[in-house]
Structure formats: structure tokens, C-alpha cells
From TrEMBL:
Protein name: Glycine dehydrogenase (decarboxylating)
Any one of the GO CC terms: glycine cleavage complex
Enzyme Commission number(s): 1.4.4.2
Pfam families referenced in this protein's UniProt entry, alphabetically: GcvP2_C, GDC-P
Higher taxonomy: Bacteria, Bacillati, Actinomycetota, Actinomycetes, Kineosporiales
Catalytic activities: N(6)-[(R)-lipoyl]-L-lysyl-[glycine-cleavage complex H protein] + glycine + H(+) = N(6)-[(R)-S(8)-aminomethyldihydrolipoyl]-L-lysyl-[glycine-cleavage complex H protein] + CO2
Keyword entries, A-Z: Oxidoreductase, Pyridoxal phosphate
Name of the encoding gene: gcvP
Provenance organism: Pseudokineococcus lusitanus
Length: 959
């Protein structure tokens, strides 16, 4: 029995779904005598690791929670008044408990199946409405990763949309947040965009420019009228982006009213905890005419088969998987859960409540300015919203130290200036105490009142849709949240068998700590000694992930898998350049790879050359040899997924690594499928140089409807100096303390906060501590078993497209529907929608091969649920047979009619099958029935009639 369990059932017994009896029955179906034999048969011997993982033994939930509490207690939480884009806020309890802590929200998947995602999609449409109306722009997307990455995406959007000369610069105002500037520089350098930092209070710099980035209010707190500057930039052929504070925009003139092209920022202060820097939902909004250049996800209004209004992801090719190396962004993970929280904060408070909160913040800042003036000190700027800079010549360190002793974090701007940022949590008593930390410098200083400039007061209305007025009471808000979550399908209802996405148990013991104040209320730029617990957790988690993967160093800064991909490729590029190999710019990528891979390579300044795959789904090693020979000394890297995107352990992976290394290239192994490797094989040992890991897949951070995510990048020692560095973000206390990115060769940060989405790292730390080396191995074995069990049960009904040695798959399998589609017209979409009637989320559709379904059962599903899924697929195959036999046409079949709603049980019925067959297909009982709220959605209609904010109620009624 693992140490610390004190007789309780080991956590792994609850995390891994199949019992010992289930395992025996499943092995018999698969045709293997034991889990060890299955692994030996499926996994090439050449990549197997020697011995168990060198990790602490599994602990009990009680013991692990106590250890984590001890780490949390090493943090000293003070009232943060640092600002710089991160503010204290109050998460309304009804939202905290019923969104952030509710598995019906946090275990949901990206809403690619819109019929069973209507609740999330409505919440995201609310988010888009909030952003668009507060910024005064035509359209906003459904969230970005954070403010800094949103600024980088805005930069590339402006470059694509501008007609300025190719060598024109991107001008960044000197008052932009420092972490935003740092990420912009990282991204610009890779693709050769010149960045010029300039104090635009003096006008625009000389020379050609394609874009201008401003901050409103500025990092210094200054609120200024930039209308003339925007006009001047437009006159010179440049487009303008403004990073704007959403709360301030309830009181200030919105950027869209002065002709700004793009607005960006964060929604963090709308009820999202500080969390050490994340996860937070960034935003991006554009003026009319730029809609189709907008990166990220976009929720739109369409209609279902009955003509009723329904929501879906609009313009879905913007997800970039199809465009590959022609993609304009590699953004995949958004911040859906956090965007939902922010949207519900706006719904709960409404426009009047938001104005009251913003006015209170502004009043506190004004009071503070008056108090320090009374002490004889100079306030640097008079036109401010929430941030006051106070000049204390030579005494800034003294003031910051005194405030810290009094329980406050202030910002040291330099040796002479201290910044104080007020927020929703700031009280009049806080103002008095903080003012008392400043020295008495003489007689009171006169001056104009400090506060919002009257000339920039907002006059336009916002959030006029009824949804922002209906839910003031907690009763109403609770019921609204419940109605939306009831419309959705998440892991709390049943299996989500998505290939390459690993939708598995997110245990309560893993989730609870993210709400602890010791983690949730920490500012990312707080002094290092006040974050001792978080930094110790980061160091432990990095070391454990290095052990799991066989690498030497890990950086947790990337806040999505897409950012981890970019960071790994930037490290490769920087490594080659450090050796004088500037010409190495070719990245080889198999045609079967994730679409984000090619997009990431382009963003890293590399040229993509594709490598063919064989009929068995493996990388074509002969074509690889040819491409390596063709590009010779220009070869920078190969980027592969292992096990392959086709769900197979390729025996040729070691030869692939040797071939690329012999030519001087580096090997990037995409860690998306690490759930099939943990405890069995380590990429860093079988030939890879760098990988990103998806903590929101293998390591149990929940998907949250499409985010949050964490995508750490792990590398061997020679690449470690080139991992992303956070030293420049937020001042001297924000540098890394663990391996990677600390040297002068680091590529710079890829996200705004020093440790990315630090607020959710306790989830993966807890998972590793609860599982231990034996539990992790068992999870991997179970993942391989469940996938092979599904493949064995279904291969006589739907051919398994790719298999490895002995007909085995890895942790997922690809079911080929193309022959059935050719003979009957039944499509993968028909099968996916019919699965809804059986009470399932569909597998991955048409990826990696069009016309297929990719299934990943994960280790968390028990045999009963696996059999329920397999039985549903067999029943659907029988319905396809009825089309084949001519009982009904595909158009008249329950497959094409799916999904079926409760409303279809009443009224006329003119279908070839009866109502019971429609809504209660084989194996579905009324007690367990999930009812989709809408019928199949017309995607083409939604794209032709693009509506991406809350439409008027009368328009909804008329759709």
C-alpha cells in the first residue's frame, strides 16, 4: 500500500476507471494476457525507458492536500496595489461556486459540437457583446490567452491588413505595459517585424510604420486623448491598436469612437482571480471590415433545422487546422472558462453596477492622490483612472518596504517613483493606510484635481441587451447559470471520447486548491519572497515533468499548447543562431500533423516543408531521407507527434531522430499524445530534443470548454538556455528561479506572466502527487487498454484505419467511415449527431483524415461506459445498414434527422421512423436521457449572416 494512504483506497483506484475484473475482461477481448504484455506488444522496444519513474510514492488525498497547504502557507498574501494589468477583484460567490467550481462548466470541451454546447456558446456570445460594446468596435472574438499575446496577435493582424511598405515598423508607445512589450518583441523578432518604442506624447516617430500600439490608460496610469494621434497614424497609412482597460471603459470614451482599428486587453478584473498571473481571458476586438482577419474563436448566431435561433462557432476555418502553414495564428486553446466568468460578472452587475464599481475605483485613486499631496508629495499625472504615481526622490524602496510591512504590495517604478493602483477591493481604510506609508515631505502640494478628465467621459450607452438587466438577484443569476449548464454536455454527464484531446477525470481534490486565497490572490509581480510557496511548487512541478519526459529543463510559462509549440521552435531557432547556423530555417512536418504545428513553425520564422505519410499512417522515412538530403544545411528541425496523430506507435521514430540529427537538425516531438507514454517511454531519451506538454490533457487541468490550458516546454540541456525567459516582465522580482531561460540567449517571454497560468498549476502538481510513479504507469496502461478494447469491439463494424504491430493501436483509434459514406451517403456528421441521441459527445470528426472519427476513451472511463459507447456505435451501424437495405433513404433516416429534441415529441410527425426510435434509441432509458436544446445547426447560414453579439430579442424571434 502506498505511503500515506492509511488504509484508504488509493487515489489511482478512483482515477483509473476499469477495475481489476474489467481489465481481465477487456484483455480477453483485445487478445492479450496482461497489461504488461499489451504494452510489450504495442510499444516498440527501442523507445522503452528503463525502470520506474523517479518520483515520490503516491500519497493519500488527505496527505497530499496537507503538503499542498504547507506550500500555500509559504506564500504571504498582501493586498495588491501593483496594477500593471492585474487587479484585485471580487468573484461573486454565485459565479465562483456555479461556474469556476462547477464541473458542468470546467469539464466541458471546445464547442465544436454546437448542438450540445448552447450554454457555453451563449455565455461566450455575452462575452463578445461586453467587449464589443465597451470598446465601441464592431466585433470581438470569444477570448485570447492573455493581454500580452493578444497584443502580439494584434500586431500581426495590423501587418496583414496594412498597405505600408514591407519594412515598415510597429510602433509601441512607451507607456504600454512592460510584459506586453516583451511578448510583442519576442513574436516580432521571429518573423522579422521591426519594433520601435516611442513616447508618442511627442508625436509619431519618423519613417514608415504599419501599426501603432497604445495603452488606455497607460502603464503609468495616465489617461490621455489620443484622437489626434490616431488620425495622424491613419494619415501615414498605419493602423492603430489600443490596449484598453474594460472597467475604465465604462467611464471613459471607448477607443472605437476615435477610429481605432483594434482593441485588446484582459477581462481579468471582471471577477477573475489574480491567480499569480493566470489563467485570464484576453480579448481582441476589431472595427468593421477586419472581421475575417480576426484570430481565435468567434461565436455566431445561426438557426437549426426547424428555423430556431442557435449558436455555433462561426467561420470555423479560423481555427487554423485546415490552413496549416498558411494560418495567420496558431491559437488553439482559448480561455473559455475565464471568459464565461467575466461575461457572467457583467451579466450579474449590469451596466449600472459596472459603472458603480468603476466610479468607486476612480474615487479611491483620487482620494489617494489627495492624501499624498497633503503630505507634500508630487503626483506625476493628474488625469488618471485607477493608478497614481507618486514622486518620492530617493525613497521609493523605503515606501514600498513600509507598505509591504503594512500588508500592501506597491509598485516600485524607479528609485524616485512609486505606483499605487486601486481596484474593486480597495477600501477607504486601505487608502488611508497606504498614504501613511509615504513620508511627510512638507506643506501640502496644490494642483488640479486628480481623476478622470471630463473631456474623455463616456457618453454612449453599453450593455443594453436585456440579458444584462435580468439577473440582479442571486436567485435569478443562479437559475440562469443552471439553465445554460443544463443545455450543455460535459464530462459530468458521460464520456467525451475525443481523439487527441484526452478528456479524462479532473478530480475534485485536484481542483479545490485553485480557489485557496494563498494561490488565487497573488499578483504575478509580487516580491519573490512573498511567492515562496508558488515558486517551490513551480520548481517541483518542473522537475517532475522533466523526469516524466526525460528532458533536462522545463519552462511552465507557455499558457497554451500552441504557445509551448512556439517556444520550443523558437528555442531551436535560437540554438542554431548561437552556433552561427542562421541559414537553418527549414522545418519538416508530416502531412498528418496537427494544424497548429505548421502555423507555429511559420510564427517562429521557419519555412515548412511537408513529409509524406505511408498507407499505414507512418511518417514516410524514404520521403524524409529525400527531404533531408534536399535541404541539407538549411534543415532546422523536424516536428512530429508521438504516438502519431493516427494513434499508432511508429517503430521508425528512432531512425527518424537519427536521420535528422545526422543532418544537423533538431527533433521536436509534439507532446499532445503523452498520455500514451508516461511511465513507458520518454521523448528526451528516445531521440527528441524538445517537446511541449499539454497539462490540460495528460496532467488533468480541465479543458473548461476550450481553455484554460498550460503548455510547458521541455528540452534537453543544449536547448535549455533558449527556453522562454520572464526576467523582463514586471520588474526585478519576476525573474525565473528554476532551470531554463535565465541566460542572455533566452528568446524572451511568450506570455505575460512569469509563470504563465500559475493559478492552475496546483492541479497537475496534485495529480502527480496523488498518482505517484506506479499510478502514472497504471494510467498509461489503462489508456492503451481502453483504446484497444474499443478498436477490437468496433473493427467489424467500422474499420480501424491505422494500426501498429499486431493490429494494436496506441491510446486512440481512427474509425474509417468513408466506405459507408460512399455506399450510403451517411456522413461522419450524421454519426456524430446521432450519438447525441444516445447520450454521447461525438469523437473527433475528420481529423487527422477526412471522413473518419478518432476515438480516445482515456483511462478514466470504466467498462460500463466503454460498452455503452461501443453499443451505441454498433446500433448506429445497424441504422446505416437499414439505409443500405433500402428501408429508408439517408435523408429520411434517424441519422440525418439527428439530433432529436424534446420539442419533436409533440406536434405533427412525418418521418419514416417513429418518435420512440428518434429519442430513445437502443440502450437509452428515459431516466438517463440527455435532451439537446436545438436540432442540427445550419452552419452555412451563420457564416452568410454573421451575427456575433447578442442580437435584439425581436431578431432572435424572427430567425
Amino acid at each position: 500500500m502506498p505511503a500515506g494512504t492509511t488504509g484508504a483506497v488509493a487515489f489511482a483506484d478512483r482515477h483509473v476507471g476499469p477495475s481489476a475484473d474489467d481489465v481481465a475482461r477487456m484483455l480477453a477481448v483485445v487478445g492479450q494476457p496482461s497489461l504488461e504484455a499489451l504494452v510489450d506488444a504495442a510499444v516498440p522496444a527501442a523507445i522503452r525507458t528503463d525502470g520506474p519513474l523517479d518520483l515520490p510514492a503516491a500519497g493519500s488525498e488527505t496527505g497530499v492536500t496537507a503538503r499542498l497547504r504547507a506550500l500555500a502557507d509559504r506564500n504571504t498574501v498582501r493586498r495588491s496595489m501593483i496594477g500593471l494589468g492585474y487587479s484585485g477583484t471580487v468573484t461573486p460567490p454565485v459565479i465562483r461556486r456555479n461556474v469556476l467550481e462547477d464541473p458542468s462548466w470546467y469539464t466541458a470541451y471546445t464547442p465544436y459540437q454546437p448542438e450540445i454546447s448552447q450554454g457555453r456558446l451563449e455565455a461566450l456570445l455575452n462575452f463578445q457583446t461586453v467587449v464589443a460594446e465597451l470598446t465601441g468596435l464592431a466585433l470581438a472574438n470569444a477570448s485570447m490567452l492573455d493581454e500580452a499575446t493578444a497584443a502580439a496577435e494584434a500586431m500581426t493582424l495590423l501587418r496583414r491588413s496594412s498597405k505600408a511598405p514591407a519594412d515598415a515598423a510597429f510602433v509601441v508607445d512607451a507607456d504600454v505595459l512592460p510584459q506586453t512589450l516583451a511578448v510583442v518583441r519576442t513574436r516580432a523578432e521571429a518573423i522579422g517585424l521591426p519594433v520601435v518604442v516611442h513616447d508618442t506624447r511627442q508625436g509619431l516617430p519618423e519613417g514608415d510604420l504599419f501599426g501603432l500600439l497604445l495603452q488606455y490608460p497607460g502603464a503609468s496610469g495616465l489617461v490621455r486623448d489620443d484622437a489626434a494621434l490616431v488620425r495622424a497614424a491613419h494619415d501615414r497609412g498605419a493602423l492603430v491598436a489600443v490596449a484598453a482597460d474594460l472597467l475604465a471603459l465604462t467611464l471613459l470614451r471607448p477607443p472605437g469612437e476615435i477610429g481605432v482599428d483594434v482593441a485588446l486587453g484582459t477581462s481579468q478584473r471582471f471577477g477573475v482571480p489574480l491567480g499569480g498571473g493566470g489563467p485570464h481571458a484576453g480579448y481582441l476586438a476589431v472595427r468593421d471590415g477586419l472581421q475575417r482577419t480576426l484570430p481565435g474563436r468567434l461565436v455566431g448566431v445561426s438557426k437549426d433545422a426547424d428555423g430556431n435561433p442557435a449558436y455555433r462557432l462561426a467561420l470555423q476555418t479560423r481555427e487554423q487546422h485546415i490552413r496549416r502553414e498558411k494560418a495567420t495564428s496558431n491559437i488553439c486553446t482559448a480561455q473559455v472558462l475565464l471568459a464565461v466568468i467575466a461575461s457572467m460578472y457583467a451579466v450579474h452587475h449590469g451596466p449600472d453596477g459596472l459603472r458603480r464599481i468603476a466610479s468607486a475605483v476612480a474615487d479611491r485613486a483620487s482620494s489617494l492622490a489627495g492624501a499624498v499631496r497633503d503630505r507634500g508629495l508630487e503626483v506625476v499625472h493628474e488625469d488618471v483612472f485607477d493608478t497614481v504615481l507618486v514622486r518620492v526622490p530617493g525613497r521609493a524602496d523605503e515606501v514600498v518596504a513600509a507598505a509591504r510591512e503594512a500588508g500592501y504590495w506597491l509598485r516600485r517604478v524607479d528609485g524616485d517613483v512609486v505606483g499605487v493602483a486601486c481596484d474593486e477591493t480597495t477600501t477607504p481604510a486601505d487608502v488611508d493606510r497606504v498614504a501613511g506609508c509615504f513620508p511627510e515631505a512638507g506643506a501640502a502640494v496644490d494642483g488640479a484635481p486628480v481623476g478622470l478628465p471630463a473631456a474623455l467621459a463616456r457618453t454612449s450607452a453599453f450593455l443594453t441587451h436585456p440579458v444584462f438587466a435580468l439577473h440582479r438577484s442571486e436567485t435569478s443569476m443562479l437559475r440562469y447559470l443552471k439553465r445554460l449548464s443544463d443545455a450543455d454536455y460535459a464530462l459530468d454527464r458521460g464520456m467525451i471520447p475525443l481523439g487527441s484531446c484526452t478528456m479524462k477525470l479532473n478530480a475534485t481534490a485536484e481542483m479545490e486548491p485553485i480557489s485557496w486565497p494563498a494561490f488565487a490572490d497573488v499578483h504575478p509581480f509580487a516580491p519573490a519572497e512573498d511567492q515562496a510557496g508558488t515558486r517551490a511548487l513551480v520548481a517541483e512541478l518542473e522537475a517532475q515533468l522533466a523526469e516524466v519526459t526525460g528532458y533536462d529543463a522545463v519552462s511552465l510559462q507557455p499558457n497554451a499548447g500552441s504557445q509551448g509549440e512556439l517556444a520550443g521552435l523558437l528555442a531551436i531557432r535560437a540554438y542554431h543562431r548561437s552556433r552561427g547556423d542562421e541559414a537553418r530555417d527549414i522545418c519538416l512536418i508530416p502531412t498528418s500533423a496537427h494544424g497548429t504545428n505548421a502555423a507555429s513553425a511559420v510564427m517562429a520564422g521557419l519555412r515548412v516543408v511537408t513529409v509524406a505519410t505511408t498507407a499505414t499512417g507512418d511518417v514516410d522515412l524514404d520521403d524524409l531521407d529525400a527531404k533531408v538530403a534536399q535541404h541539407g544545411e538549411r534543415l532546422a528541425a523536424v516536428m512530429v507527434t508521438y504516438p502519431s496523430t493516427h494513434g499508432v506507435f511508429e517503430a521508425g521514430i528512432t531512425r527518424l531522430c537519427e536521420t535528422v540529427h545526422a543532418a544537423g537538425g533538431q527533433v521536436y516531438v509534439d507532446g499532445a499524445n503523452l498520455n500514451a507514454l508516461v511511465g513507458i517511454a520518454k521523448p528526451g531519451e528516445f531521440g527528441a530534443d524538445v517537446s511541449h506538454l499539454n497539462l490540460h490533457k495528460t496532467f488533468c487541468i480541465p479543458h473548461g470548454g476550450g481553455g484554460p490550458g498550460v503548455g510547458p516546454v521541455a528540452a534537453r540541456a543544449h536547448l535549455a538556455p533558449f527556453l522562454p525567459s520572464a526576467e523582463v516582465a514586471g520588474g526585478p522580482d519576476a525573474g525565473r528561479t528554476t532551470a531554463g531561460g535565465t541566460g542572455p540567449d533566452g528568446v524572451g517571454p511568450v506570455s505575460g506572466a512569469p509563470f504563465g497560468s500559475a493559478g492552475i498549476l496546483p492541479i497537475s502538481w496534485t495529480y502527480l502527487a496523488l498518482m505517484g510513479p506506479d499510478g502514472l504507469l497504471r494510467a498509461t496502461q489503462a489508456a492503451l487498454l481502453t483504446a484497444n478494447y474499443v478498436a477490437a469491439r468496433l473493427r467489424d463494424h467500422f474499420p480501424v484505419l491505422y494500426t501498429g504491430e499486431g493490429g494494436l493501436v496506441a491510446h486512440e483509434c481512427v474509425l474509417d467511415l468513408r466506405p459507408l459514406t460512399a455506399s450510403t451517403g451517411v456522413t461522419v456528421e450524421d454519426v456524430a449527431k446521432r450519438l447525441v441521441d444516445f447520450g454521447f459527445h461525438a469523437p473527433t470528426m475528420s481529423f487527422p483524415v477526412a471522413g473518419t472519427l478518432m476515438v480516445e476513451p482515456t483511462e478514466s472511463e470504466d467498462l460500463a461506459e466503454l460498452d455503452r459507447f461501443c453499443d451505441a456505435m454498433v446500433a448506429i451501424r445497424a441504422e446505416v445498414a437499414e439505409v443500405e437495405d433500402g428501408r429508408w433513404s439517408v435523408e429520411d433516416s434517424p441519422l440525418r434527422g439527428a439530433p432529436h429534441t424534446a420539442a419533436m415529441l409533440v406536434g405533427e410527425w412525418d418521418r419514416a421512423y417513429d418518435r420512440a426510435r428518434a429519442v430513445y434509441p437502443a440502450g437509452v432509458t428515459p431516466q438517463r436521457k440527455y435532451w439537446p436544446p436545438v436540432r442540427r445547426i445550419d452552419g452555412a447560414y451563420g457564416d452568410r449572416n454573421l451575427v456575433c453579439s447578442c442580437p435584439p430579442v425581436e431578431e432572435l424571434a424572427g430567425l
